[in-house]
Amino acid sequence: MSEEILSLHNAEIFQRENLVLSNVNLSIKKGEFVYLIGKTGSGKSSLMKTLYGDLPLEKGTGGIVDFDLTKLKEKEIPFLRRKLGIVFQDFKLLNDRTVYENLFFVLKATGWKDKGKMKAKIIEVLSKVGMETKDFKMPFQLSGGEQQRVAIARALLNDPDLILADEPTGNLDPVTSVDVMNVLRDIHNSGKTILMATHDYALILKFPYKTIKCEGGELFEVVQQKN
Ligand SMILES: Nc1ncnc2c1ncn2[C@@H]1O[C@H](COP(=O)(O)OP(=O)(O)OP(=O)(O)O)[C@@H](O)[C@H]1O
């Protein structure tokens, strides 16, 4: 049986005192690609935030990589995030430094010391997203799709066990979205586990993977029709 990398049992997801999702049961195994879909405001981001320790898991049980979400302490959150690669809709690159420096900054902050190894790692992850020739550019000199590629490269730096992508194509046009999705698919095909929140149904049809839907305050697995 393959290894479970994320599990939630009877979890309740809150935004402060507001219950957003209840009775949440979710299991993701190593190597899976899973979509989290649902209308705006249905709770996708709240669930993602609970998974990376931005919202506490107060009811139910949950485990992600090697961490118990019910017992997660403030000081453990950076260590949890090191095992996760997180990709956001708005890229969140530092605009005052180059692509290379953005990635170098993360490596330094996560304890890397050897400059040669850091350089090799940066080239490795940029090559995975096809951005190795643009390492000297500032983020604002890149298109949205290129910025998201760099953000995906940044998420790969510490060889994460799980990638959480919250609407990674939300700011991109349909053609660029497919481009970025091709990158995520290649990363998945190389063995990575990915949970991606999206409301882009066209992408799901083009890149079909297991799909979980947030609706009416609960989660359901969507059974995809085979044509
Ligand atoms: N910081 C907050 N404080 C209180 N309530 C919030 C907060 N952020 C979101 N909510 C509420 O929680 C519910 C779920 O929001 P969430 O952002 O998780 O939805 P979503 O499915 O990710 O939506 P979208 O697709 O628009 O990002 C909504 O009713 C929203 O109004």
Give a quick summary of the entry.
Part of the ABC transporter FtsEX involved in cellular division. Important for assembly or stability of the septal ring. By secondary structure, the chain is α/β, with parallel strands linked by helices.
Number of strands: 10
CATH superfamily: P-loop containing nucleotide triphosphate hydrolases
Shape: globular
Class computed from helices, strands and strand pairing? alpha/beta
Mean pLDDT comes to 94
The set of bound ligands, ions and cofactors reads: adenosine-5'-triphosphate
Beta-strand proportion: 25-35%
Given as residue ranges, the uncertain stretches (5+ residues, pLDDT < 50) are none
Word description of this protein:
The protein is an alpha/beta fold and 227 residues long. The protein has one domain (4-221): Rossmann fold (3-Layer(aba) Sandwich). It is built from seven helices and ten strands. The chain has helices at 44-51, 77-82, 99-109, 115-128, 144-156, 174-189, 201-206; strands at residues 4-15, 18-29, 33-37, 59-64, 67-68, 84-87, 162-166, 193-197, 210-215, 218-222. It has a six-stranded mixed beta sheet with strand order 6-7-8-3-9-10, sandwiched between helices. A four-stranded antiparallel beta sheet has the order 2-1-4-5, with helices on one face. Helix 6 links the parallel strand 7 (162-166) and strand 8 (193-197). Helix 4 (115-128) packs across helix 5 and helix 5 packs parallel to helix 6. The chain is globular, with a radius of gyration of 17 Å. The mean pLDDT is 94. Adenosine-5'-triphosphate is lined by residues 15-16, 18, 20, 38, 40-46, 199. Adenosine-5'-triphosphate (ATP) is lined by residues 15-16, 18, 20, 38, 40-46, 199.
